[in-house]
Amino acid sequence: MNRIHFENGPYSLSHEEKDRLLTESLLELTLYHGERCPEYGRMLKALRFDPDIVKSPATIPFLPVSLFKKLRLSSLDASELFKSVTSSGTSGQARSQVVLDGETRTLQQMALTRIGGDFLGSRRLPMLIIDSEATVRKRDHFSARTAGILGFSLFGSRRVFALNEDMTLNREIVKSFLNQYGNERFLIFGFTYMVWQSLFLELAKTGETIDAGNGILFHGGGWKKLQSQAVSREEFRRCLAGSCNLTEIHDYYGMAEQAGSIFVECAYGHLHASDYSEVLFRRARDFSLCDVKEKGIIQVLSILPRSYPGHSLLTEDEGTLLGVDDCPCGRKGAYFSVEGRLANAELRGCSDTYAAGIR
Q1: What distance in Å separates the CA atoms of residue 189 and residue 57, rounded to the nearest whole number?
Q2: Tell me, what CATH number does 297's domain have?
Q3: Alpha carbon 346 to its chain's center
Q4: Do residues 139 and 23 both lie within one domain?
Q5: 179 pLDDT higher than 80
Q6: Are residues 126 and 249 in the same domain?
Q7: What is the longest distance spanned by two Cα atoms in the chain?
Q8: What confidence score (pLDDT) does residue 50 get?
Q9: Are 340 and 224 in contact (CB under 8 A)?
Q10: Do 237 and 274 have their domain in common?
Q11: Residue 356: pLDDT above 50?
Q12: Of 228, 253, 278, which residue sits at a domain end?
């Protein structure tokens, strides 16, 4: 089924080779879900979908990501359901429902392992999580925030939670972690707004600093809330460098509706599509493809979803394709930036949810 082999590096394919392999896998997924998911099958029929016109990932039909807030799309028999993931959403908003089986969950973990390993190396690291342990207690049905923590825990040799259940910073736990592991390489994971609110601002209240200079921070989501507070990406980095001595910081872009296919920021500040996914940019007026460096609506594609038709999604975000195969970091594939949410799009994202008071 998945024609891109996990044995290869996650950014190893040239555009031409990746385009061919993704087209084959995405078409196969489209036909598979059309047969297994009745609602998706009816959508393809309404679109008069013709497999013969599929010549590239751009010709695969896409679903609006908001559709998962209205329909529980599944390509599974009842006996195959493994877990379900609920996306974040502020009070009163509908939340996306994503169903997983064991195969899809395994594919997601394999992809995340390869992508994260490209930045972190093969050795598991001590891991400080800017969240509360209470977030991960429920395992059969969990939030996108829980899924993110559990996913990145694949890279942790020991998992330590930095926050109390009321989301306040547990300074003693943080100090103990740094005393034990601070002299070696370690991983810090958290959602963007929570890193800002519960780590940086808590330290700033007392003027306290910590030395996390050997840490590597992975964070994602929540930029809309920070932008409303006039906190830019540059300011975020500068403040964490000052209060925590953190200089190796990787933002990532991803969503519950297409878990595992995360787009990680390299040292040059560019988000990268791996060999298991693709990113396209479409004009709002007619959904035609944007040119390089032209801002458009982000479409994300992934070869991973087998349990639900989430392999081609039009997001509610805007971004810009910066180039393909020629990022100075050496990783092949498309690299891009995210500009923010579309006008009038709902506030969403794991840490946006916490910012709105949903825990």
Answers
A1: 32
A2: 2.30.38.10
A3: 18
A4: no
A5: yes
A6: yes
A7: 64
A8: 97
A9: yes
A10: no
A11: no
A12: 253
Task: Please write the tens of the pLDDT for every residue from 325-341.
Answer: 999 999 999 999 998 88
Instruction: Read off the pLDDT of each residue in 345-349 and give the average, rounded to a whole number.
Output: 47
- How many other CB atoms are found less than 10 A from the CB of residue 247? 13
Q: What's at 223, amino acid-wise?
A: W
CATH number of the domain that residue 158 is part of: 3.40.50
d(CA 322, CA 293): 5
Q: Is residue 169 part of a domain?
A: yes
Q: Which residues pair with 158 in a beta bridge?
A: 126
Q: pLDDT value at position 359?
A: 31
Structural domain of residue 274, as residue ranges?
Answer: 15-68+270-341
The pLDDT value recorded for residue 340 is: 83
Which DSSP string do the residues of 183-252 spell out, in sequence order? TS-EEEEEEHHHIIIIIIHHHHHHT-----TTEEEEEES-HHHHHHTT--HHHHHHHHHHHH---EEEEE
Q: Are residues 275 and 237 in the same domain?
A: no
Sorted by sequence, the CB contacts under 8 Å of residue 166 that are 6+ apart come out as 132
Q: Would the pLDDT of 357 be above 60? A: no
| Amino acid residing at 196 | W
Number of domains in the chain: 2
Q: Which pLDDT score, from 0 to 100, does residue 344 have?
A: 67
Q: Using CA atoms, how far apart are residues 98 and 72, in angstroms rounded to an integer? A: 7
User: How many Cβ atoms sit within 10 Å of the Cβ of residue 39?
Assistant: 13
Q: How confident is the model over 33-65, as pLDDT tens digits?
A: 999 999 999 999 999 999 999 999 999 999 999
**Looking at the structure, do residues 286 and 218 belong to the same domain, yes or no?**
no
φ and ψ at residue 304, rounded to 5 degrees:
-85, -40
Same domain, 238 and 284: no
Are 223 and 279 in the same domain? Answer: no
